[in-house]
Amino acid sequence: MRTESPNHLSRGQAGKWDPKGPLLTLPPDERLDLPAIFGNARPVELEIGTGKGTFLLARAAARPEVNFIGIEYARAYALYAADRFRRHGLANVRVIHADASSVLAGLTDGSLIRLHVYFPDPWPKRKHQRRRLIQPQFVDQARRVLSPGGLLLVVTDHRDYFRQIEAVLAEAKGLVKIAFPKMADADGQIVGTNFERKYIAQGRALFSLARMKYC
Running DSSP on this structure, what letter comes out for residue 46? Predict the structure, then answer.
């Protein structure tokens, strides 16, 4: 996920946050036992690029019958989001401070019902575009960890990246195009992240894609 600089989240503030409970440490072997983590075998959704946790906060509160994991590479945001979930008493959400590829590699086949990717960094310079998250290798991994009928959901404000994502998904096997499900209550919002609200206020166009795993 594209993240704003976390510099305003100072070390002094971080010392006041209590991420215990929601914050997970990736095991040394990078294998994640989801039923053990949550203490139950409920279905699991995962968001890549949790940021301050706005999307997962609303989603986890609205769906207590589902478990949620957020991946956040920026440590300050991971701590902030974990503390936020703890303060709201959400027992069905966890945060991992790690690289997304490491976490996905540690999941068993078919372990997720939804994989959320909202406003990933577009790396607009041509020489940097190889760093974009959504590449064929990522889509193969996403398909592996999704259960049959599971959804890969992507939103971006970057038209060029959107076209690349469309092209990558068009070549992906085992995924079928579907309408993007309603995720936000507010009119005009797709999923309700901080970035989405900011971009709507700026008048930017937003692009969404949804794919369902059928095999």
Answer: E
CA–CA separation, 138 and 151 (whole Å) = 14
* Catalytic machinery residues: 121
pLDDT band, very low/low/confident/very high, at 19 (cuts 50, 70, 90): low
Asked whether the whole model's pTM tops 0.85, one would answer yes
Q: Which two tokens stand for residue 137?
A: 């290798």
CA distances from 127 to 36, 79, 122, 130, 131 (A): 42, 32, 12, 7, 9
- Residue 40 CB neighbour total at 10 angstroms: 12
Q: Which of 68, 157, 194 is nearest to 165 (CA)?
A: 157
Domain 6-213 has CATH 3.40.50.150: yes
Question: Would you kindly state where each structural domain of the chain is located, as residue ranges?
Answer: 6-213
